[in-house]
Amino acid sequence: MIKPEGSYVDLDMPKILSSKKLASLWHLMKGYHTNYLIATVFLGLAAFARTNMYLVLGRYLDQVIGEGFVGNQLLLAALNFGAMIVLQAISSFMSNWMASFTAENTTRRLRDYLFDHIQRLSYAYHAEAKTGDLLERATSDVDTLRRFFAEQAVGIGRIVFIFIINLFAIYSLSPHLARISVIIVPIILIVSMIFFKKLSKAYESYQEQEAVLTTNLQENLSGVRVVKAFARQDYEIKKFDDNNREKFNRGKKLNLMHSFFWPISDLISAGQQIYSSFTAAMMVINGALTIGNFVTFNSLIAWLIWPIRNLGRLIVDTSRAFVSFGRVSEILRAPEEDLFSSTYEPAEGIRGEVEFRNVDFEYEKEHPVLKDVSFKCEAGQVIALLGSTGSGKTSLVNLLPRFYDVTNGSILLDGVNLKEYSRSYLRSQIGIVEQEPFLFSDSIRDNITYGVHREVTQEEVEQAAREAAIHDVILNFSNGYDTLVGERGVTLSGGQKQRVAIARTLLINPRILILDDSTSSVDMETEMQIREALDKLMANRTTFIIAHRIQSIMAADLILVFDKGEIAQCGTHEQLLNEPGMYRDIYSIQTRIDSELQKEIDSVNIL
Amino acid sequence: MSTFYDESEYDDNVTSQGPVLRRLLKVLKPHWKTMLFAMIGIALVSFLDAYFTILNKRIIDEGIAESNISTLVRLFSIYASIVLAQSFGFFLFIYLIGLQGERVRYDLRKALFNHIQKLSLSYFSKTPLGWIMSRVTSDTEKMADLLTWGIIDTTWAITNIIFASIYMFTIEPKLALIVVLSLPLMIIVSFKFRVNIYRHYRQSRKANSKMTASLNENITGVRVVKALRREDKNLKAFEVLSTEMFRESYRAAFLSAIYLPTIQTISAISLVLVLWQGGLMVSGTTLTVGGLQAFVSYIMMILWPIQDLARVYAEMQNAVASSERVFSLLDTKPAIVNRENTLPPTSLVGDVIFENVSFHYEDGEPVIRNLNFQVKQGQTVALVGPTGGGKTTTVNLLCRFYEPTSGRILIAGHDYLEYDLQNIQSRIGVVLQTPHLFSGSIRENLRYGNLEASDEQVEKAAKLASAYDFITSFEHGFDQNVGEGGNLLSVGQKQLISIARALLAEPDIFVMDEATSSVDTLTEALIQKGMHQLMSGRTSFIIAHRLSTIKSADQIFVIEDGQIAESGDHKSLIQQRGIYYNLYTKQFRHDLETKFDPFIDAGTEANTA
Ligand SMILES: Nc1ncnc2c1ncn2[C@@H]1O[C@H](COP(=O)(O)OP(=O)(O)OP(=O)(O)O)[C@@H](O)[C@H]1O
Ligand SMILES: Nc1ncnc2c1ncn2[C@@H]1O[C@H](COP(=O)(O)OP(=O)(O)OP(=O)(O)O)[C@@H](O)[C@H]1O
Ligand SMILES: [Mg+2]
Ligand SMILES: [Mg+2]
Questions:
Q1: Would you say residue B597 has pLDDT above 70?
Q2: What are the distances in angstroms from CA B350 to CA A401, B346, B347, B419, B525?
Q3: Best mutation site among B336, B358, B387, B392 for ligand 1, i.e. most ligand atoms within 8 A of its Cβ?
Q4: pLDDT digits 0-9 by tens, A395-447
Q5: Chain A, chain B: beta-carbon pairs less than 8 Å apart
Q6: Is the CB of A318 under 6 A from ligand 2?
Q7: From CA B154, how far away is CA A190, in angstroms rounded?
Q8: Distance between CA atoms of residues B58 and B72, nearest Å
Q9: Are B315 and A151 in contact, with CB atoms under 8 Å apart?
């Protein structure tokens, strides 16, 4: 009974997103429609029991006034009344149970879906998106939807039930009274719709500000080191306070509207009640109605108006759910990265021959980051990229696993256009060590094995760690490979992080290896160790190396020197040294230091 | 995923909620007037509610039964005017209570955020960000709900019950007694349920923050997730969390669903007794029919408040679970605080001395051991050494992000514990090893270093850090948006901006932790020229692996295993032929051996202008 049912894969998202809002919410409940209906029916039953309580009471009073009770009739009437309460209780239990089952399952499924969807959105989406905003939508807005499913969604059924049942009951007392008692319906509807529009707007702006606040908090927390480094706590507090206050103000506005709506709808309801009640009283005086019936009617009318009054409230509350659903569906509408289409998969795996043909690339229209890049390399070669800051090196290697697609031109892998391969396949073949390594808050072992999709032995893990020159360091931690690292790897030193990231990539044994500036934070000696290990590993796999130290790249088969998105120079180390240009400039600066060092060493040696 | 530390900051005591509740009420204290008015409003409304029943009774007895139309009209007009008054009261209290809710949200978040700003780095490196977030956002929400509608519903229910009981006693005390006697039973049942419902809510709040943490981490690390095709596994891991959340909230909801009907059934029993006994009394003529009718409608009237009370009580458990989390965050003591009698804010111009400084992050794992050094005012010091040696940690200590576990650090003649924290941190300019920018424009990011900087100053700093050229090449120049964490820039660009940001702060002590590790050689050479000029007269700490950056330092400390293994200037260290010599020449010699380079002369001749 307490097991989750159904999974996020059951959701038919295109249908959900293309429907009208109410229908979308209905489709979101897919699989739980029966539970939902049961919940509604039981709510109806509860309403029925409640109405019946009044009828029983009316009859009871009539009988007390009239001929009185004989024998155990009195006890029976009382028990009858008690039975109705119990029926009411059981029904409301059933309906609450079913409603919470529906609501909790629906939201669990939606959360899963969102989680998965968000991680499958494109690189470009994530570059622009604010984490705090995504979080706000995936948590607070989803919670609003949960409320809707638990409370409002079944409320609709209940209201209709109660209304119909009571209307019938009144009708059976007097058709005339029934007719004059429904004048309220159109009035409440109109008033609610007016408020619905206004409240939706106000709530949307409120919720937007809430997201601003969450984003503010998220950014503050993720940049906490910078905040402290500049002692900007006061500034941050003020910024947050401004946002918080703005939210308070918007909340005040929203609240004011609510405070108008409720009494207004209550006044309308009370007006109807007085009117109906007075008419009924006159009917009694005119002899058209018995006193017992009047008492009954007086209770029933309250139960006829109650649902309508609540309908107004429900419509208004639903506006929240709609707004939240709108915000969630904005994420859901963003297209996922297509991982699996175009399924060209060479049986024997890829060889690693890469060719760029007149590749242009831009993140934003009209702002090219790579311009007319062409080069070719054989399988197993080492390609080095060197160039000024922001010249497009990272952007170039990001094209290979298809994190982004080229704007113009084409990239060929083993002679086949990259677009023919599925992204998933490419990523299984290409290993990339990011320029800024990201580790997860998990054990070191789990971080190293993060990319392999099979069971790995401790030996394999250690082997990879050794190749990345981190094994000894890990053994020095008191928990060894089970040492937990903080979020983003904050409890490791810069060089340790980089090496764990290298080990992680080496373990997946990719056909194409990309090292994006991945030894920038390790000392020379460690770098040398890594490089020796890599030399062996690079032997028969195509490797892209981005580095700033000539020494790290001079053995490459092909060196590409980038300047402002274009290949300024290319060739081997020897060729490049022979031509004037950036490469030689860089080389001279670096060797000047080295040759000075040489002199110093010599002088030391002489002494 | 997210296995880091388990949340267990509060004891497992589920039976006594007194302290949390008392503290919760304190949150309302500054706004007690509003609250009082709202409560009076609601009491009035419910008092009038009870009056309707009397009115109804009179309508039947005096109006209808007597066929007196004028009385009827009069009674109905009274009825209408009460309704009018009531809805005004209604408006007032809804407005007040809603306002109160917003205020409580505002207050709680402000208090939390302000407190978070005081917490030390050691807290943040061990607490998943999502945990903190969920406390500030969703837990405060639950608290505000309880403190507003929860209290109002309770007030309404209780006044309703009280008024109805009073009326009932005036009509027929014996019958009323039957009703009142069922109360203790309800209370006992409620307590039994409470403990269980609460337990599940507590777990569900915990699951909620784990979910938030997992989501947050997955979003920030989404690039790695994609590159390593972890989507399926991560989803599986998340499903475990969301299922836990489901299980706990569902159990709590299920228990509440049983709880409410149980309460109703108890009230049903007492009502059956009342009807039965009441019927007997009317037959015995101790009770009028109108009286019985009124009595019965009072019973109906308290039936719902009792149910309401039960509902609020169940929901309250959720809010209490949330409050615990919020309070535990507020109670977290910052590891680093100002000492008493701190010195008034001053400049930190002067010598920096480390005296027998030792430090560890985790007990039993010393990172810095007995570090001693002295840096004269205006000197440039380079920290070098193998990775993980403790260079960043040394800087963390200098900036007082952490404090030494033993030994002292003296700045300008004072133990730095005597200074105000703010004073130290605003006078030391650090470029962190991992560059971080905030979303917003480049200009805003640079100004973070100096909020009052003029545009000229900003541009000057950018030029010094060699960031000017690439900034102006952007479409919006200094107003270009950098994206969250600086995502829309290249890593080198982020580093240059971080340097410019620190320059703008014009600190007394300047710290660069591998600030140019991802910057190309030509740009680095340019920066160094600017730096020289900038560092003269300023005490500077430079951490770098590239020889070019450290060569000209006045002192070089080779830090290995948390100790200074060697120190001196470049020349003397080379002469020592120790670690430093090896660190920087082994590779160099290695390269010479493995690849004799015939073009080395061609290179050196073509010097850059
Ligand atoms: N917040 C932390 N909690 C626990 N341990 C830490 C933390 N930060 C660093 N360490 C550990 O302290 C040691 C020293 O780290 P530190 O960052 O000072 O090295 P480093 O010399 O700066 O290295 P690198 O050159 O790689 O940046 C490392 O073993 C690291 O794992
Ligand atoms: N996601 C993005 N959206 C928009 N522009 C971007 C994005 N990422 C990078 N850029 C811009 O594209 C240009 C090239 O960036 P890239 O990261 O490829 O440089 P890089 O050569 O790797 O530099 P570095 O050596 O500093 O890492 C830069 O001007 C940068 O500002
Ligand atoms: Mg890059
Ligand atoms: Mg470091």
A1: no
A2: 52, 11, 9, 14, 29
A3: B392
A4: 999 999 888 989 999 999 988 888 888 888 888 888 898 888 889 888 899 89
A5: 548
A6: no
A7: 32
A8: 9
A9: no
Distance CA B311, CA B264 (A): 11
* Contact of B548 with B484, CB cutoff 8 Å: no
B391 pocket-lining for ligand 1 (C-beta < 6 Å):
yes
Q: What six digits make up the tokens of B17?
A: 């909620």
Of B334, B541, B329, B325, nearest in space to B430 by CA: B541
∠ CA B256-A142-A245 to the nearest 5 degrees?
105
- Give yes or no for a contact between B468 and A372, defined as CB atoms under 8 angstroms apart: no
Mean pLDDT of B305-334: 85
What is the C-alpha to C-alpha distance for residues B428 and B412, in angstroms, rounded to an integer? 13
According to DSSP, the residues that pair with A411 across neighbouring strands are A356
Distance, in Å, from the CA atom of B532 to the CA atom of B548, rounded to the nearest integer, reads 13
- What pLDDT, on a 0 to 100 scale, did the predictor assign at position A559? 92
Structure confidence at residue B1 (pLDDT): 36
Q: What is the CA radius of gyration of chain A?
A: 36
Using a CB-CB cut-off of 8 Å, the residues of chain B touching A224 are: 121, 124
Conformational region of residue B338, where left means phi above 0, alpha means psi within -120 to 50, and beta covers everything else: beta
Q: Record the tokens describing residue A475, joined without a space.
A: 């053994």
Q: Which of A189, A152, A101, A157 is nearest to A325 (CA)?
A: A152
Question: What is the C-alpha separation between B435 and B177, in angstroms, rounded?
Answer: 73
- The residues, ordered by sequence, that sit 6+ positions from A384 with a Cβ below 8 Å of its Cβ are A544, A545, A546, A547, A552, A553, A556, A558, A559, A560
CA-CA distance, A337 to A38, in Å (whole number)?
A: 39
Under 8 Å between Cβ of A339 and A423: yes
Report d(CA A285, CA B69) in Å as an integer.
Answer: 8
The whole-angstrom separation of Cα A423 and Cα A341 is 8
Tokens of A325: 């659903």
pLDDT in tens, B99-128: 888 999 999 999 999 999 888 888 888 888
Q: What three-state secondary structure class fits B383?
A: strand
How far is residue A488's CA from residue B470's CA, in Å, rounded to a whole number? Answer: 28
If you write DSSP's letter for every residue of A54-70 in order, what string do you get?
Answer: HHHHHHHHHHHHTT---
Angle, helices B289-331 vs A33-65, to 10°: value is: 150
Comparing C-alpha atoms, which of B200, B435, B167 is closest to residue A517?
Answer: B435
The residue written with tokens 């001693």 in the block is B372
Q: Which of B253, B271, B421 is facing A81, going by the closest CB pair? A: B271
Over residues A492-519, the mean pLDDT reads: 88
Query: How far apart (Å, rounded) are the C-alpha atoms in residues B501 and B435?
Result: 11
A179 contacts: CB under 8 Å, gap ≥ 6: none
Structure tokens belonging to residue A184: 């309220």
A235: left (phi over 0), alpha (psi -120 to 50) or beta: alpha
Question: Is A495 within 8 Å of chain B by CB?
Answer: yes
Q: Mark yes or no for CB contact B574/A604 under 8 Å.
A: yes
User: Which of B1, B134, B388 minimises the CB distance to A496?
Assistant: B388
Q: Can you tell me the distance from the alpha carbon of A413 to that of A427, in angstroms, rounded to the nearest whole number?
A: 13
DSSP per position, A415-462: TEEGGGS-HHHHHHHEEEE-SS----SSBHHHHHGGG--S---HHHHH
Predicted ipTM of the assembly: 0.86
Strands lying side by side in the sheet with A558-563: A430-433, A512-516, A542-546, A382-387, A558-563, A566-571
pTM passes above 0.90: no
State the average pLDDT over residues B199-228. Answer: 86
The alpha-helical segments, DSSP class H, found in B332-420 are 391-398
Contact, A441 vs B128, CB < 8 A?
yes
CB A389 within 8 A of CB B493: yes
Please list the helix, strand and coil fractions of chain B in percent, rounded to the nearest 5, in that order.
65, 10, 25
Q: Where are the beta strands (DSSP E) in A53-179?
A: none
